[in-house]
Write a structure and sequence with these properties.
- The structure holds 2 protein chains of 2 kinds.
- Chain A is an all-alpha fold.
- Chain A contains 1 helix and no strands.
- The termini of chain A are far apart.
- Chain B is an all-alpha fold.
- Chain B has one domain.
- Chain B contains 6 helices and no strands.
- In chain B, 28% of the residues are buried.
- Classes of the chains: A mainly alpha, B mainly alpha.
- At the A-B interface, helix 1 of A face helix 3, helix 4 and helix 6 of B.
């Protein structure tokens, strides 16, 4: 098409919005990279995939009195 | 395919209801989240975590998915299109991002609720669980940005939209 009008370009508000989003994403990535993110931060091992119960839920590993041994 | 006026109004009413409901549900969730972050009482913490899971799974997630769906219907069934205007495209990307983060975050919420539901969990462990405030407040900001974009509809066509508009203009000329 010979007389197609040229695209006016990306609006300023889109550029400003994009910059803000990129800055926020970088901050979020730094936060996540610090290892203080997700369910894993609540587990003693820090393993995001592990579901380690709180200390009070873990059974006493000591054998009962009069047990084996 | 462009919807009829009656269908368009119904779809718009459904979309507004679901999207505003999403914001309202998150507001209620934040109240519980603040309690989880600040309260020291074990019973309140237990109740807050259990309620957070219920609200997240049975109110927020369905509203998020439904408003994403009605948003797609609204854009594809009207002259706005999905990729023609920057405000529609950005709204779509923000809604998808918010929904994905929400679905990931529900795992954390369920983990908190599982621990809270266990009667053997001590008060100290409950207080040490923490909250999801960063995500819930961040999600609210994203939802408010979506409201602004959808109400003000700032100008600006994508290159795809510009080309489509030109094709329609030349196609309608005799």
């Amino acid at each position: 098409m010979a007389n197609r009008p040229p695209h006016p370009g990306t609006p300023r508000w889109v550029k400003v919005f994009g910059i803000i989003v990129i800055v926020l994403l970088v901050v979020a990535m730094m936060f996540i990279g610090g290892g203080e993110h997700g369910p894993g931060r609540h587990t003693p091992s820090g393993d995001a995939g592990g579901r380690v119960p709180p200390s009070s839920v873990v059974e006493d590993p000591a054998p009962p009195e009069g047990g084996r041994g | 395919m462009i919807m009829t006026l009656r269908l368009r109004k119904f779809a718009l009413a459904a979309h507004i209801t679901l999207a505003v409901g999403w914001i309202g549900a998150v507001a209620g969730y934040i109240a519980l989240d603040v309690a989880a972050a600040t309260c020291q009482d074990a019973q309140t913490l237990r109740a807050a975590y259990l309620a957070m899971e219920l609200i997240a799974w049975y109110v927020i997630v369905p509203l998020a998915l439904a408003s994403l769906l009605t948003g797609l219907v609204m854009s594809l069934g009207t002259k706005w299109g999905l990729f023609r205007h920057y405000w529609v495209l950005i709204s779509l990307l923000l809604t998808i991002s918010a929904t994905v983060v929400l679905l990931v975050e529900t795992q954390t919420i369920s983990y908190f609720a599982d621990i809270a539901a266990d009667p053997t969990t001590s008060s100290d462990d409950l207080r040490g669980l923490g909250s999801t405030l960063v995500h819930s407040v961040g999600g609210t900001v994203v939802l408010l940005v979506l409201v602004v974009l959808n109400v003000y509809k700032p100008r600006g066509m994508t290159r795809y939209g510009w080309r489509k508009q030109d094709e329609q203009r030349t196609g309608s000329q005799p």
